[in-house]
Design goal:
The complex is a heterodimer of chains A (354) and B (497).
Chain A (H helix, E strand, L loop, with lengths): L7 H14 L3 E4 L14 E4 L6 E5 L4 E5 L4 H9 L3 E2 L13 H7 L6 H4 L6 E7 L5 E5 L11 H4 L9 E8 L1 E2 L3 E8 L2 H12 L5 E6 L3 E8 L1 H11 L2 E2 L3 H8 L12 E5 L12 E5 L4 E5 L4 H10 L3 E6 L13 H14 L15
Parallel strand pairs in A: 1-2
Antiparallel strand pairs in A: 3-4, 4-8, 5-9, 6-7, 6-8, 10-12, 10-13, 11-12, 14-16, 14-17, 15-16
Chain B lengths: L14 H9 L7 E2 L2 H4 L16 E3 L4 H14 L3 E4 L16 E4 L6 E5 L4 E4 L5 H8 L4 E2 L12 H7 L6 H4 L6 E7 L5 E5 L10 H5 L8 E8 L1 E2 L3 E9 L2 H13 L6 E6 H11 L9 E9 L1 H17 L4 E4 L3 H12 L1 H6 L4 E4 L9 H15 L3 E6 L4 E8 L6 H18 L15 H7 L2 H14 L14 H9 L8 H8 L1
Parallel strand pairs in B: 2-4, 3-4
Antiparallel strand pairs in B: 1-2, 5-6, 6-10, 7-11, 8-9, 8-10, 12-14, 12-15, 13-14, 13-17, 16-18, 17-18
Classes of the chains: A alpha+beta (354), B alpha+beta (497).
Chain lengths: 354, 497
């Protein structure tokens, strides 16, 4: 498992060369999430050769891994020690890497209950646009020395630097998991998901497929059994459901129409919209398949205190991520400049302005 | 402060004119300039460092904060924000040439939403007050620093505070959804929101723990969690500190994530027992407090397993709190450990390094050896589950050279933490205190990157200048010169004044 290679020096040389030649780079891992965000121009900089687990000590609950390492390796190594990445990242293909997982910042069904990618980042080593190799954070659970720059990499879509390696906090695999399902309406599902999330239950998933509410419980056998008694419903064979939801491979996600990801407060009322929806994250993440004009979708979501991402499909040269307020955009531009003054990395991928 | 080039300051301008400008929009009583009235603001929880600020302002509205910042931006006056000033790194240490902006009047809980499980509060609201307000709904705010009775949520965000429950429930950064922030040029902006994520960069990650360097918080939306059905605590006594430290990793390895896993050494145990009569075994070399929470049956099961494990790993005695009263008493001893140890000597100096858990035993041994070398007693109280140490160095500032010796001892501990793969600060922040040790933990290029992040938020460098991030050239001096030839931090504020 530790068989890997360290290409830090080579990657740094590529960055320095690109800086010298004013050449843009597209940071590329396994390419499984290349569709995500705006298309970017630039010479592909392959990260996937920079791979391998650097340190992993189960007792410390920490794994440090090179960015090009396949996500599947990491999950296998963790599972063999009875541990997991608690944010259930989607692979969306066999070649998904750890670096891409961090850069895209996408988390799976467990997210509202255990946390997102960013919540488990303890440290990272990056190359900035000046070609400096920088290490932020570390391998310890608590660290407030300097700005939390490692965490900033999560979801930055590779626009701030080349991540070389990342340290994640990991957690034990739950002793037991089970799923309870029952039929109900969307308003009933939302009310129930919010009610349960306010109770001390070992929840690890809560979704509504348009017809049925599914609740996943994870934890010690005793806690799961107690939770089951509290919630009721049919016990399903639904490991597959959560796996398919995580990988966006349920039939719902197969539509050729644009797929929108709406991030709203879990307690937000049902959308004023009749298009097909799938509710995840206890109501806080609502997938929408819709041809409606983007502005109308964004306005609807803004009213609920959330934001909308054109996740997949549609024309990719329109706005993908929710537009920022002007002061926030200025701050984003200054941050981009602070890390990547020449605009080498993934130009325009997150926002055309960056 | 000599380390960070204060090129700006109120001293360069006409004080009466500035006071007059502030009183255009602030009541007279909200602008303090008389020396005697300024004195209560001269330090935070790290009282070894003191500095009378040029002036203190106590705005009451967001609009007034914007006006203060806009004015200071116009006149290029540095600003230090202050909450309850319980911080332990001198992060709220005032500047002789700067304005101290107290957020004490921002003390309202604006909304508790039991369905969304959030609390919207002003930054001056005390940490514990949030949990108290949420309690009727069966909810609470998880991060619980030991100072939670007094410390404010604004300060918690600035320091990314932890507490005894962060192994399981995370730090402040994991529990904050949205911040309303006044920018250094006086504009109100919102970072994050009521949803679980926001478009663009994760600015919440940068704001949490930014030590008042990037913006002035005026409102915070935090997550609330359901109160566990049951919490139970074990007290395990050991006749050897290293054995206690080694048992910590075994509990985690067994797949149990305790809600809290704390350790105190013999000196701290006896001090706490004398102070609050927690019922601790005073003959022990160390105790572990291990709290398990969850559903009723789960807690019983984990308590049983943890108990067996602790006995197997050499605990001389394991007690389970018999009822809630005893559980609260066990925790009271831990939470009062700092003041309890404080009674043993005229002064104490609290450190805050974090190390990988597996290095705990050797680090404790080394701290013991350093204690003998410096001839200063040290009590160890810490978040063992997180590897976050709080060695308390006992000294007497009235004895010539003792403060200096305590500081050197502290610096050695922090450098030891970095050497074993840890950090100089787990939860107290760098502030004024640990600015030298930042040079040990970070390279010049890393520090430059921090300064560029700072400048992205605060291009005029007006917010809390001189704290948290040293100038690389200062580090170059620190690395080449012996510590002895530098101005000791304790005398720096005097030198700067």
């Amino acid at each position: 498992m530790n068989s890997g290679q360290d290409l830090s020096t080579e990657l740094r040389e590529h960055v320095l060369q690109a800086a010298a030649e004013d050449k843009r780079l597209e940071l590329l891992g396994g390419g499984t999430k290349r569709f995500y965000g705006h298309p970017t121009t630039g010479v592909p900089l392959e990260i996937s050769g920079h791979r391998g687990v650097v340190t992993y000590e189960p007792k410390e609950l920490v794994m440090t891994v090179r960015a090009g390492t396949p996500l599947a390796w990491v999950e296998q190594a963790l599972a063999s020690e009875g541990q997991m990445l608690p944010f259930e990242p989607p692979h969306l293909g066999d070649r998904a890497t750890v670096g891409g997982t961090l850069a895209c910042g996408i988390s799976g069904p467990r997210r509202p209950f255990t946390g997102a990618v960013r919540d488990f980042v303890l440290g990272a080593r990056i190359i900035n646009g000046r070609g400096d190799i920088l290490r932020f954070g570390g391998e310890v659970m608590k660290n407030v020395a300097g700005y939390d720059t490692a965490r900033l990499m999560a979801g930055s879509l590779g626009t701030l630097g080349v991540v070389l390696d990342v340290s994640f906090k990991v957690l034990p695999l739950p002793e037991r998991e089970l799923t309870l399902s029952r039929e109900c309406s969307q308003p009933q599902a939302l009310a129930e998901m919010n009610r349960l999330a306010g109770r001390p239950l070992p929840l690890s998933g809560a979704c509504y497929d348009g017809r049925r509410l599914h609740i996943r419980l994870s934890g010690s056998s005793l806690a799961v059994a107690a939770g089951k008694n509290h919630i009721g419903g049919d016990e399903g064979h639904s490991q597959q459901l959560w796996q398919d939801l995580r990988e966006l491979s349920l039939p719902f996600f197969n539509s050729p129409q644009p797929l929108w990801r709406l991030s709203v407060p879990a307690s937000a009322p049902p959308l004023e919209c009749t298009d097909k929806q799938f509710l995840d994250w206890g109501g806080a993440q609502r997938w929408l398949v819709s041809q409606a004009p983007p502005e109308s979708i964004r306005t609807m979501v803004e009213k609920l205190g959330g934001h909308a991402t054109l996740f997949r499909g549609g024309t990719r040269n329109q706005r993908i991520f929710h537009p920022l307020s002007q002061p926030l955009m200025i701050l984003h531009q200054r941050l981009k400049q602070a890390f990547d003054p020449k605009g080498l990395f993934n130009s325009g991928r997150l926002f055309p302005e960056l | 402060m000599p380390t960070n080039d204060p090129v700006k300051g109120a001293g360069k301008i006409d004080t009466p004119a500035l006071v007059k400008a502030l009183r255009q929009f602030l009541p007279n009583a909200a602008v303090i300039t008389e020396t005697e009235a300024l004195r209560p603001y001269e330090c935070d929880g790290l009282s070894a460092y003191r500095q009378i600020p040029w002036a203190v302002v106590l705005p009451e509205t967001v609009e007034q904060v914007c006006q203060v910042m806009s004015l200071c931006h116009h006149w290029q006056i540095p600003v230090v924000a202050r909450g309850a000033a319980t911080g332990l790194s001198g992060g709220a240490l005032p500047l002789a040439d700067g304005l101290l902006l107290s957020l004490a009047k921002f003390n309202r809980i604006l909304n508790i939403d039991p369905i969304a499980r959030t609390a919207r509060v002003e930054p001056g609201v005390r940490n514990l007050a949030i949990s108290q307000a949420a309690n009727p709904y069966g909810l609470y705010y998880a991060p619980d620093p030991s100072s939670q009775i007094a410390c404010t949520i604004g300060g918690n965000v600035a320091e990314n505070s932890g507490g005894v429950h962060c192994l399981k429930y995370g730090l402040t950064v994991h529990n904050v959804l949205e911040l309303k922030v006044v920018t250094p040029d006086g504009h109100l902006t919102t970072i994050g929101g009521p949803a679980l994520d926001s478009p663009g960069y994760d600015l919440l990650a940068i704001m949490n723990g930014s030590e008042g360097m990037l913006g002035i918080l005026v409102e915070v939306l935090v997550k609330l969690l359901p109160c566990p059905e049951r919490a139970q605590v074990l007290l395990a006594a050991f006749d050897d500190v290293e054995r206690a430290a080694a048992a910590v990793g075994e509990i985690i390895a067994a797949g149990i994530i305790p809600a809290g896993l704390e350790m105190m050494d013999g000196l701290a145990v006896r001090a706490a027992e004398d102070f609050v009569h927690a019922g601790y075994p005073t003959e022990a070399a160390a105790i572990l407090l291990c709290e398990i929470d969850g559903t009723n049956e789960e807690v019983s099961d984990h308590i049983r397993r943890a108990r067996d494990l602790l006995l197997k790993k050499g605990a001389t005695e394991v007690r389970t709190a018999q009822d809630d009263d005893e559980r609260i008493r066990f925790w009271k001893g831990r939470k009062s450990a700092f003041p309890a140890v404080g009674r043993l000597a005229p002064d104490y100096y609290c450190m805050d390094g974090t190390v990988p858990r597996k290095r705990l035993p050797e680090v404790l041994t080394r701290i013991g050896a350093l204690s003998r070398e410096y001839d200063l007693p040290v009590a160890n109280v810490f978040h063992a589950g997180d590897g976050n140490l709080h060695p308390l160095i006992l000294y007497d500032a009235n004895r010539p050279g003792e403060l200096r010796r305590a500081e050197d001892f502290g610096a050695d501990i922090l450098e030891l933490c970095v050497r074993v793969g840890g950090t100089i600060t787990g939860e107290h922040g760098v502030g004024h205190e640990k600015i030298h040790q930042m040079c040990v933990q970070f390279s010049a290029a890393e520090l430059e990157q921090f300064h560029r992040v700072k400048a992205a938020f605060d291009p005029s460098l007006l917010l809390n200048p001189g704290k948290a991030i040293p100038q690389p050239k200062h580090c170059a001096e620190y690395r080449t010169l012996a510590r002895d030839t530098l101005v000791p931090p304790g005398e720096r504020s005097k030198a700067a004044g």
